Amino acid sequence: GHHILSYNDIFENENRKKIIACILQEPGIHNNELLRQCNLQKGQLQWHLYVLMQYGIIKHEKIGKFSVFFHLKMTKDPNKYSQLLIRKSKTSLKVLDLIEKNPGINSSTIALQLFLNRSTVKYHIDKLKKKDLILFKHKGRKIELFPNRNFN
Questions:
Q1: pLDDT tens digits, residue range 118-151?
Q2: Are 102 and 114 contacting, i.e. CB atoms less than 8 angstroms apart?
Q3: Can you tell me the distance from the alpha carbon of 118 to that of 57, in angstroms, rounded to the nearest whole number?
Q4: φ, ψ of residue 5 in degrees (nearest 5)
Q5: Is the pTM for the entire model greater than 0.70?
């Protein structure tokens, strides 16, 4: 059945208070981390997250394989928000770190240095580009990669 809760009811529940506190302390926290920190069963957590989203208290986004959660009123500083999203992937972080340390590097060199398939590197580069964390510069047939200094 569908429950109708008042806002007082929402905030009186100890589990929801824990969930909200975790999200406020660590915006972008993912589902598995919430399970660990709140010490809840998966079904319990899903129910409480559903209630909090239905009442417009939190929102969720899908980042790769992660579902991450934010307070609905969180203002997005583009730099912090993009870094938060990228932080969910260790490989994206490694690629970004190489680009920052070696401006002008290309994807082939990144693949060699990180022992990754070129298609994997392309995926992460596309993800970084979409978040405006890197810039492309065409040099002949090669594409050089640079950190976007507006975000650093």
A1: 999 999 999 888 878 899 999 898 999 999 876 5
A2: no
A3: 41
A4: -110, 145
A5: no
